[in-house]
Amino acid sequence: NAGVTQTPKFQVLKTGQSMTLQCAQDMNHNSMYWYRQDPGMGLRLIYYSASEGTTDKGEVPNGYNVSRLNKREFSLRLESAAPSQTSVYFCASSPHSLEGTGYTFGSGTRLTVV
Amino acid sequence: EDKVVQSPLSLVVHEGDTVTLNCSYEVTNFRSLLWYKQEKKAPTFLFMLTSSGIEKKSGRLSSILDKKELFSILNITATQTGDSAIYLCAVEGRTSGTYKYIFGTGTRLKVLA
């Protein structure tokens, strides 16, 4: 089925460990996004990529890095995980950041940092 | 600072009731407002609103936008237990040359049988 695929679905890390969250879309969308969702905080934008080859910081970029590997894939890396990064992470895509068509979301990654 | 505020934060109703969810916003260079329904996993798209006063409708759900007063409402009539979810409002604005969506914190709706 066409859509946005995120891996892994669940992950537990120890403080200081690193990991990469993977995201891939097969809808030929130009723009991709990483959000985190915390209780009472809503969805907050971490990083986004308006088009292949570009990435920009969102609202809460500290502690994260991203790579837009190609048009399909947009990964999020935690270099040294902290308990404050415990959250549910969503990847999303849209045809183009300049077209108001809404997002398609992945199913999310639940990350716990202990 | 751009912001999106949803109210109420949570709501408990009985099946058959009608509910109205609110979303107010302050966003630079507004372009669109979206409503999403989030059950256990990813948000799923409900409506996109770009023009004031034009109601979007899908079954028992409807939504309308007021660009003068900067708010939108989502109505659900004859609620069912399957409507229990978090309803998210997202507003699209443009800063630094790029459009992005800002999300509200959501309204958690619980419909009791």
**What is the overall number of helices of chain A?**
0
What structural class do you assign from the helix and strand content of chain B? mainly beta
Query: Biggest protein-protein interface?
Result: A-B, 25 and 24 residues
β-strand percent of chain A reads: over 45%
* Radius of gyration from the alpha-carbon trace of chain B, in angstroms: 14 Å
**What is the terminal-to-terminal distance of chain A?**
35 Å
Global shape of chain B? globular
- Helix/strand/pairing category of chain A: mainly beta
The mean pLDDT of chain B is 92
Strand proportion of chain B, as a percent range, falls in over 45%
What's the short story on this structure?
The complex is a heterodimer of chains A (114) and B (113). Chain A has 114 residues and is mostly beta strands.
Mind explaining what this structure looks like?
The complex is a heterodimer of chains A (114) and B (113). Chain A is an all-beta fold and 114 residues long. In chain A, 0% of the residues lie in helices and 51% in strands. In chain A, strands 2, 4, 5, 6, 9, 10 and 11 form a seven-stranded mixed β-sheet that branches. In chain A, strands 1-3-8-7 form a four-stranded antiparallel β-sheet, with no helix packed on it. The model of chain A has no long low-confidence stretch (mean pLDDT 91). By secondary structure, chain B is mostly beta strands. In chain B, 0% of the residues lie in helices and 61% in strands. In chain B, the strands form two sheets. In chain B, strands 2, 4, 5, 9, 10 and 11 form a six-stranded mixed β-sheet that branches. A five-stranded antiparallel β-sheet of chain B has the order 1-3-8-7-6, with no helix packed on it. Chain A binds chain B through residues 4, 33, 35, 40-45, 48, 50, 56, 58, 90, 97-98, 100-108, and chain B through 4, 31-32, 34, 41-45, 48, 50, 88, 90, 92, 96, 98-106.
